[in-house]
Design a protein that fits this description.
CATH architecture: Orthogonal Bundle
CATH topology: Arc Repressor Mutant, subunit A
Low-confidence stretches: none
Number of domains: 1
CATH class: Mainly Alpha
Largest sheet: 3 strands, antiparallel
CATH superfamily: Winged helix-like DNA-binding domain superfamily/Winged helix DNA-binding domain
Strand content: 5-15%
Helix content: 55-70%
Number of helices: 3
Mean pLDDT: 83
């Protein structure tokens, strides 16, 4: 019985904080989209500085947005830029 209660509590904890993390992810993605809407095109370093994230984490969000079809990338490595997918 005690083990079942612990599992139930753990599941509630994960659900509660999983939802919070999802909301944070969505608001951060929206901040990236808003920045690109205003700026037009940008490097990941510019976006990271503007929204106060590490560049590696910003690239994670950009890759998610690319996978969702909302952002496109052009160029390679240091010359890569990102812009909204208006197509």
């Amino acid at each position: 019985m005690l083990k079942e209660n612990n599992i139930s509590c753990l599941l509630l904890f994960v659900r509660k904080f999983g939802d919070k993390k999802s909301a944070i992810n969505q608001s951060t993605k929206q901040a990236v989209l808003d920045y690109l809407e205003n700026k037009g095109i940008a490097k990941s370093s510019e976006i990271a500085e503007a929204i106060n994230l590490k560049q590696s984490r910003t690239r994670d969000y950009l890759n998610d947005l690319i996978a969702e079809g909302k952002v496109i990338k052009q160029g390679a490595n240091k010359n890569r830029i990102y812009k909204l997918n208006n197509g």
